[in-house]
Amino acid sequence: MVARRRLQEEPAQNLYFNDAQVRCITTGCSVLDCVLGSGWARGRVSNIVGDKSVGKSLLAIEACANFAQEEPRGLIFYREAEAAFDVPYAENLGLPAQRIDFGPEGIGTSWDTIEDIFEDLHEKIALCKSRGVPGLYIIDSLDALSSRAELERKPGEATFGLEKQKMLGKLFRQLIRAMRSADMSVTFISQIRDKIGVTFGEKHMRSGGKALDFYAVQILWLSHLGIIHQTVKGVKRATGVRIKAKCKKNKIAAPFRECEFEIQFGFGVDDVGAGLEWLEEVGALKRLNLVPAKVDEYLKAAAKSTPEQFKELRHKIRDAVVAEWALVESRFAPTRKKYG
Is the separation of the CB atoms in 285 and 245 below 8 Å? Predict the structure, then answer.
């Protein structure tokens, strides 16, 4: 795929399929929004799971960018526990760094334990509620967090055990209703772990036990499909990766929906390319009356368009994706009610 022209985003209408009472934060990708049921559910817990370099942090960054546009007074908290966050690169992807609270010491704030997050989240929920504004709270990542008890142990002593699971369960039991009432959206980023000795069924897991499985409204698993290369003047470089996303739990829309999209380095999720490819897959591309009609040829032509033309095109594709997704889903809906 050729590089696409960057454009300034504007708040998207994202109440696609779920109950109108469930407001959402757009992901920045129309097809992925549809997979989730309109985007990331607000006032609830979501979980992004995947291996390295599959766009977990990138999706969190795009969520922050879209939330900042949708809620000019909203508060955004990004708790970076891996000590690997590159602010200039994230700003290049659209992160409004001036709106982000990274902690009392800025991006260098240490977030070492579940207890640290527990206490901080409690304070930030109270802050949002007192100001009467919504909030977005990102934990990147759950796997980098320890416990105060573990940090006090000596090397060689028994380690974490079930402490993380117990702490997460306690956190959710005490704060889940407060999150909802304060309109605080909380996103946990998790890395996958291999299940040793498993030869059938699910071969991967993520840390934290069953607490996230129970309390998260949406659990999105990302997997790596391949590397995208581009050749310019005889020089070949990797310019992105292709990702598959599957929503394994969804309480605001039908679960187990999936899609594919490309992530372009320094740009983010390729919304236009993903939308066109999905429309072509379901045989609906002709409804857009595109000239030329083939996806690759059209993307090459679109790359030469003005920012205003590209913006108009993106909205056109988004509307087509949403309408077609709703039509496809209606074909699988039950034809009658079981009761009544």
Answer: no
Contacts of 177 (CB under 8 A, 6+ apart): none
**Model confidence over 79-137: pLDDT tens digits?**
999 888 999 999 999 999 999 999 999 999 999 999 999 999 999 999 999 999 999 99
Please tell me the predicted confidence (pLDDT) of residue 146: 84
Supply the range of the domain harboring residue 102.
Answer: 24-270
Are 299 and 276 in contact, with CB atoms under 8 Å apart? yes
Give residue for tokens 């988004």: 318
DSSP 6: P
Helix and strand counts by DSSP (H, E) for the chain: 10, 12
What's the token pair of residue 113?
């334990």
Task: Count the domains in the chain.
Answer: 1
| Burial bucket for residue 121 (CB in 10 Å: 0-12, 13-18, 19+) | buried
Residue 34 sits in a domain of what CATH number?
A: 3.40.50.300
